[in-house]
Amino acid sequence: MPELPEVETIARTLQQGKADSPSLVKHKITRAEILWNRTIAEPAVKDFKRRIIGQIIQKVDRRGKFVQIHLSEDVLLIHLRMSGDLIAGEGKEPLGSHPRLVIYLDKGLQLSFSDARKFGRVWLVADPDTITGKLGPEPLEANFTAKIFAERLSARKRQIKPLLLDQAFLAGVGNIYADESLHLAKIHPLTRSDQLSASQAATLLKSIRKVLINGIKSNGASIDWVYRGGGYQNQFRAYDRAGEACQVCGTPIVRMVVGQRGTYYCPDCQVQVIG
DNA sequence: CACGAGACCTGTTCGC
DNA sequence: TGCGAACAGGTCTCGT
Description:
Blueprint: H1 4-16, E1 29-34, E2 40-42, H2 45-52, E3 57-63, E4 66-71, E5 75-79, E6 84-90, E7 99-105, E8 109-115, E9 121-125, H3 129-132, H4 146-154, H5 160-165, H6 175-185, H7 198-217, E10 254-258, E11 261-265
Helix pairs in contact: 1-7, 4-7, 6-7
The structure holds a DNA duplex.
């Protein structure tokens, strides 16, 4: 489920709280229950349980697709991968349909990491940079300019879509928002990154920002049973729309596989540059 | 360096 | 209805 807008939505919810979800801030961790050992990437399960007890949650935010829960001593990093979700609430029974890690807090609260496919991972580290340090720039940060983006694109010779999915190149964009950005920018998913003009690079960065911001405004996208709450799927231009008319030109949207990922594009609007 | 295939996993949907 | 195949918001590792 999670790309930048979905992760941002979850992090904000845990930070601020909302009607059905208490804020985690200022709560103290009393215990950790681990229901699937491989969920814990670092440190060893036994050390994880011991070390997290007594720490106080100070802030929840995001870096790339990682949720960062800042504690009094450490940072808890959570990557939701394909099917992970974080649910805050009350009670002693693990929340969610597939709980893998439950962090119990004071005042009867808990934070449950539910993850059907067991791909998600959690790190408890003193310095988050040891994990997130390899990530590329945040697409929404103002100091990430079109010029820098263009330079990074021309430094590589890769197909643009898989490059956008490379978290070391750009942090936070996933399969849906890559397709949506490329459609909005009218760039074919297989275009080589070093073939993009400066103006195309600028357009692409604008498009990426637009779809991410709109995704956040909609609280992310809910396309199947995994995620709940978001509404961005109602604004999809290309993703999961094979056979439907392109909103711009009416040509049917095509699905192909690029880098083993389903890829949707308009064969008329998104013309591949030959070279 | 760029790319494709296989792993890691479970749940849902599709086609016959 | 049943049952296997195909597919899924991600990322890592290996071989070419």
